[in-house]
DNA sequence: AGGCGCTTGTGAAGGCGTGCACAAATCGCG
DNA sequence: CGCGATTTGTGCACGCCTTCACAAGCGCCT
């Protein structure tokens, strides 16, 4: 119902395109490396060792080396990685050299905050349009941008060259908005609504559910409490630093 | 630096505690199942098949059955799962039967929205205290709760029985806040600041970085664009619905 | 020029998670 | 009361990811 699983992995179409098909796990870590690299660049470092960068990104150094090797990275043995070069490499792979235009749908409590979030602009994204279904909100300016009615979405996507849509509506409205985004030509969706979206093949959906994160923490709290309460509980579990991202 | 990896998996301490050690991947999906179950309960359904629940949660039915079997779940062959019973089971496992007290640190742009987010209260959490370092913000009410100065954090944690802390400060302040939370006795942290936190063993950290999610989408956009531009690109990639969570 | 120390890149092994496919179990109906 | 339809629970195989350990390469110092 939600998503077909493309049961059979399609056999290689033959010629490998000029794009490295990186493991998903690696892709999910590249942004973290990128952030760490920007920090290092600000401190004036020219090169980093895999050990140093791994520490800054919170991962194992072997993992980092393997990740970077996947994208055919240029490091120098005995020296390390060139910070500036690596930044360019990763930004190119992530497609951040072009500042992507993003549409945000739903300017309620959470959406309002997202519209004003600095982190997007500073990391390669421009929120170029805000939408809402509530007439009360339409026309109001947020962070220098006017909220438009959702009916204008189709036109705006084409005019502004929008490729990514962010859904911050209530759960009940999310599927409808997703459908409209897809119809308008958006092929990547970031969904903050607590529900499963159904989209056609070729459209990527990532979901962020804030309550789920808390519930996972709650589980670990529950577990820790039940362990320390028990006699044999040696409480040897290490705090694990888990990051989101598939 | 960031976190030790407890290199050797500790040999079974002997008696397995009265707590199932579920795979992390399963734990991350339980909240999604729970949400789907609540939806089903509202529609008046008494039982669900694994197929039906899996569709509602956006996963494979086999995976769902295996997940539920891990927590020794009670389903009935030929019938399905008892919705109400399963809700209780999962809520117990996740430790949601007790409404956990949460402290939120940093009521800037994002923190303000989190403080007013309905989704927390409706899914088993109470934000009981807000903190900020900015005197300008201290004393102001947000959603019926007064913002306190961060210096009061230690006392509040004890008095209010807080076990989970949410960090929504700028990156530069996050590590300091994390240290204070840990000192105060908090053992679970949800970090929205774009940085790696270093915490002692026994403390769990989960990180949500909104920009990273967009960057991952950007990668897929970049990949799709380069594929469709190529001659051999059959564009048979299926839209993958990926959820956050380790 | 040669050797030494440091760091990358990677082959191999192990672990974890996923998904298939089927046996076991339960209900309902004739 | 027995049989068939339905659905759960799980053994098994496969693939991905992680981690270790080490050879290959690079720069520096003597």
UniProtKB/TrEMBL annotation, chains A, B:
Gene3D superfamilies cross-referenced by the UniProt entry: NAD(P)-binding Rossmann-like Domain (3.40.50.720), Winged helix-like DNA-binding domain superfamily/Winged helix DNA-binding domain (1.10.10.10)
Domain of life: Bacteria
Keyword check for Cell membrane: no
Start-end of DNA-binding region: 32-71
Signal peptide feature range: none
Keywords: Cytoplasm, DNA-binding, NAD, Repressor, Transcription, Transcription regulation
Binding sites annotated in the UniProt record for NAD(+): 106-111
UniProt keyword annotation of DNA-binding present: yes
Domain CoA-binding: 95-196
Record-linked SMART domains: CoA_binding
Subcellular localization: Cytoplasm
GO-annotated biological processes: negative regulation of DNA-templated transcription; response to redox state
Cellular component GO terms held in the UniProt record: cytoplasm
Any one GO molecular function term: DNA binding
Family per record: Belongs to the transcriptional regulatory Rex family.
NCBIfam families recorded: PRK05472.1-3, PRK05472.2-1, PRK05472.2-2, PRK05472.2-3, PRK05472.2-4, PRK05472.2-5
Function: Modulates transcription in response to changes in cellular NADH/NAD(+) redox state.
Known partners and oligomeric status: Homodimer.
Name of the protein described by the UniProt record: Redox-sensing transcriptional repressor Rex
Organism: Pseudosporangium ferrugineum
């Amino acid at each position: 119902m939600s998503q077909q699983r493309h049961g059979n992995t399609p056999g290689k179409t033959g010629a490998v395109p000029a794009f490295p098909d990186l493991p998903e796990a690696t892709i999910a870590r590249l942004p973290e490396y990128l952030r760490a690299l920007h920090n290092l660049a600000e401190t004036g470092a020219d090169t980093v060792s895999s050990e140093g960068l791994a520490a800054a990104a919170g991962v194992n150094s072997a993992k980092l080396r393997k990740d970077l090797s996947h994208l055919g990275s240029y490091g120098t043995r005995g020296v390390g990685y060139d910070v500036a070069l690596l930044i360019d490499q990763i930004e190119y792979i992530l497609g951040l050299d072009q500042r992507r235009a993003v549409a945000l749908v739903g300017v309620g409590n959470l959406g309002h905050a997202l519209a004003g979030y600095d982190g997007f602009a500073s990391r390669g994204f421009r929120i170029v349009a805000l939408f809402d279904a509530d007439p009360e909100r339409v026309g109001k300016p947020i962070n220098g941008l006017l909220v438009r009615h959702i009916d204008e979405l189709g036109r705006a996507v084409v005019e502004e060259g929008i490729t990514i849509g962010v859904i911050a509506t209530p759960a009940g409205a999310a599927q409808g908005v997703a459908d409209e985004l897809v119809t308008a030509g958006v092929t990547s969706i970031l969904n903050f609504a607590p529900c499963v979206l159904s989209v056609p093949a070729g459209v990527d959906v990532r979901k962020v559910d804030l309550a789920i994160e808390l519930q996972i923490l709650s589980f670990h709290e529950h577990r820790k409490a039940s362990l320390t309460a028990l006699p044999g509980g040696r409480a040897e579990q290490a705090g694990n630093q888990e990051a989101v991202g598939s």
